[in-house]
Automatic annotation (TrEMBL):
<keyword id="KW-0807">Transducer</keyword>
<keyword id="KW-0472">Membrane</keyword>
<feature type="transmembrane region" description="Helical">
    <location>
        <begin position="635"/>
        <end position="656"/>
    </location>
</feature>
<dbReference type="GO" id="GO:0005886">
    <property type="term" value="C:plasma membrane"/>
</dbReference>
<keyword id="KW-0812">Transmembrane</keyword>
<dbReference type="GO" id="GO:0004930">
    <property type="term" value="F:G protein-coupled receptor activity"/>
</dbReference>
<feature type="transmembrane region" description="Helical">
    <location>
        <begin position="609"/>
        <end position="629"/>
    </location>
</feature>
<dbReference type="InterPro" id="IPR000068">
    <property type="entry name" value="GPCR_3_Ca_sens_rcpt-rel"/>
</dbReference>
<dbReference type="InterPro" id="IPR017978">
    <property type="entry name" value="GPCR_3_C"/>
</dbReference>
<dbReference type="Pfam" id="PF07562">
    <property type="entry name" value="NCD3G"/>
</dbReference>
<keyword id="KW-1133">Transmembrane helix</keyword>
<dbReference type="InterPro" id="IPR004073">
    <property type="entry name" value="GPCR_3_vmron_rcpt_2"/>
</dbReference>
<keyword id="KW-0675">Receptor</keyword>
<keyword id="KW-0297">G-protein coupled receptor</keyword>
<feature type="transmembrane region" description="Helical">
    <location>
        <begin position="574"/>
        <end position="597"/>
    </location>
</feature>
<dbReference type="InterPro" id="IPR038550">
    <property type="entry name" value="GPCR_3_9-Cys_sf"/>
</dbReference>
<dbReference type="InterPro" id="IPR028082">
    <property type="entry name" value="Peripla_BP_I"/>
</dbReference>
Amino acid sequence: MVPNEGQQYMGIIQLLLHFGWIWVGLLAADDDGGENFLKSLEPLLSQNGICLAFTERIPNQAKWDTVGDINNLLSSIYQIFKDRKVNTFILYGGSLTMISLNNMLFLGNTGYMGNISLSKVWILTTQVDFMLIGTQRYLNFDLLHGAIAFTIHSNELQLFKKYLSNIKPYQENQNNFLKEFWEQAFDCLFPNLDGSMQVDDMCTGEEKLENLPGAIFEMHMTGPSYSVYNAVYAIAYALKAMASSNSMNGKRVQFQDLQPWQLHPFLQSISFNNSAGETVSFNDKKEIEAGFDIVNMVTFPNRSFLRVKVGRVDSSAPTGKQFIIHDDMIVWQRTFNQGPPLSVCNDYCQPGSQKKKKEGEKFCCYNCVPCPEGKISSQKDMLDCVKCGEDQYPSKDQSGCIYKVITFLSFEEPLGISLALLAISFCLITGLVLRTFVKHRDTPIVKANNQDITYTLLVSLLLCFLCSLLFLGEPSKLTCLLRQSAFGIIFTVAVSCVLAKTITVVVAFMATKPGSSMKKWVGKGLANSILLSCSLVQAAICVEWLGTSPPFPYLDTQSLNREIIAECNEGSDIMFYLVLGYLGLLSLISLTVAFPARKLPDSFNEAKFITFSMLIFCSVWLSFVPTYLSTKGKYLVAVEIFSILASSAGLLACIFSPKCYIIVLRPELNKREQLIRRKN
């Protein structure tokens, strides 16, 4: 009625991993049991990333044949304890193994081992723990202070302590075993039946078992005793089940002729609750569902010790509770400052670095190298550094990820405020110019070159300055849709007005020649047709753009290392450059037409001013394209806003400042007689 030993192996693995002990030593008895233990545990250690610093077989003292053998053993023990990196030893064996190890340590400590510290964390298997009682007189128990042992699971039974307290060696029906135990436990002797033997330490029979040290006798239920108790009850329940089964079949059980195999089917199916309240049953593999307790050994100067239950291993428990350990209950070796020691081949790789295997050494031994650029490690001993998420970037020491800041050209920052104030200022200036022209709409200089086109140009320039404000602030679905399309259409209207004005000047001059057929084109119809047709083409392009691949808000996490750019994705780069290309085509046509017309003999000739405005316009947007392609983030938006403001201001200044000068400062020149005189 003991649990599968495989649970103990997995418990050892979980314990080592829990405390990070990956560089451990293994000591096992030099017999078949020790050999099987090594074959079972070593592969499990390797599979779970735990390395063996050494494996030492401990022979019984009977096999210490020569002085040379003893010296070899002592030398091995010396090397084991000399290595300060190995602070965790796993021990498997019986009582003779413990005594042999104790004697080797005694001989070594009195010989050339000198003052080497023997403080280690000992992990004791169930076999070792079972043999501790009865060997306390032969062992140095200080060595095991703070040891962690695996014991067969037990629980306190009702009335068990009371039963032990009432046991007397003179009770009737007691066999000689109890008297022999009494003499060994209390180190006394009972007198002979005739009373002839008298010694100083006579057993009275009134001694109390609870007064014995725990190393000699434990008053609580031990694992082996608990297993025997459950086994007896299991047999009883199996016999009862067999008797009931045969009774139903009309048969009578002959218990004196019962064979063990006949009981197996009933034994495997039993399930009952013992007096401790625990369910006793077998699993599908016909193994008892019990598990192991994890106990902490606390030793005392009087060579006694105390087992303190600090955890449990139970494979049948729910996931997450199959291994339980209470760190705060564990008492450690005094030299460990009441904390678990390190037991690793080398120091942990700190966050910001990763492991790099040392050639020719076990995988637990490695170098620590910094993480490659752009990667981080946030935990100790990471095998590989990892990249941060798209919205994060590595910290300076590469030990963690920092969230990138979302950036855009806002109204609150100095650059955004400056551009917004500049745009509003130009809007006010344009509005003032428009008001001036409306106020003086009956003067010759305003009437010249198609008054309606002039008003349309001023309104479109006003809207151009205003549309630049759409590029400020965090992009939204609406602003992304309006930005480029509004800019493209409004700017096209402005450039179309300039082109219409230029062609009007050229046609008007050509119509003055005798017999010219251009006279039929003179008038508002030509200018309005040019304005409408050119604007409709750009509007069609923008409608197609918005209908097929419209711009949308987008977070660019790749362009900048520490910032996320909140921008408008143009949806289709082809359509975006098609809008710009069409604008460029109109401006080049205007420049081509205006340049030769700048010297025409007309007092109202705007061609020379249009030439300058188109030169500024083309220069600005030719500079914009390479700058746009090489700039990222909010500065790209700032470049586009500046280009809109600069080109619009160029048109406003070159075309309207000369006229405003005459209207406001030189009104005497704004008369038909003066203009005719200047023309002649």
